[in-house]
Structure to design on (158 residues):
């Protein structure tokens, strides 16, 4: 059986709860990707073109710093990477995460929560940042997804 990790970023707790449920269902380790400078409510205002999130998401090369690095990534075969959809894709801090770890030989499965959008270009963007890894398109889940559905979805890679 392959060893799996659920790594996630969550700005307002929705993806955090989903990630915890997923890890619990499949018996995976869990790691929270935290911004070195946490996001405030004002930072998350997508209607303000000058907010931190707007500025970051408008710059494809933006790589917000992560507080703690994973040091024992070698032990995992499968890594589920969770995040909220921001502007139809993965938040820039997920790009930082993808670049800061060695995913070669691993299967990376993105998952997300959103206000209604799907995964968009997230999987392709993440694949471009993780050479040697198999990065899938992944799936966006409604908040009320059942534990059973989560477990069945994840079982394909375990
Ligand atoms: C800056 C920003 C951009 C967002 N862009 C989208 C989007 O493009 N499509 C969408 O459906 N939801 C969008 N949302 C809503 C979030 O994806 C949604 O609320 C998510 O569940 C939040 O997860 P979290 O609590 O883990 O941060 C956006 C939210 C923020 C803060």
């Amino acid at each position: 059986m392959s060893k799996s990790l659920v790594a996630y970023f969550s700005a307002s707790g929705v993806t955090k709860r989903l990630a915890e449920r997923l890890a619990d269902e499949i018996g995976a380790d869990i790691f929270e990707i935290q911004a070195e400078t946490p996001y405030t409510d004002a930072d998350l205002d997508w209607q303000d073109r000058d907010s931190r999130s707007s500025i970051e998401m408008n710059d494809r090369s933006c790589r917000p710093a992560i507080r703690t690095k994973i040091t024992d990534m070698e032990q995992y075969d499968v890594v589920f990477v969770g995040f909220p959809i921001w502007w139809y894709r993965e938040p820039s801090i997920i790009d930082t995460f993808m670049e800061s770890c060695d995913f070669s030989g691993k299967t990376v499965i993105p998952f997300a929560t959103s206000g209604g959008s799907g995964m968009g270009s997230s999987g392709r963007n993440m694949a471009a940042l993780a050479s040697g890894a198999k990065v899938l398109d992944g799936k966006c889940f409604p908040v009320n997804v059942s534990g059973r559905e989560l477990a069945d979805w994840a079982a394909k890679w375990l």
Remarks:
- The mean pLDDT is 97.
- Residues 14-26 form the longest helix (13 residues).
- Residues 10-16, 44, 46, 53, 84-88, 113-117 surround flavin mononucleotide (CB under 6 Å).
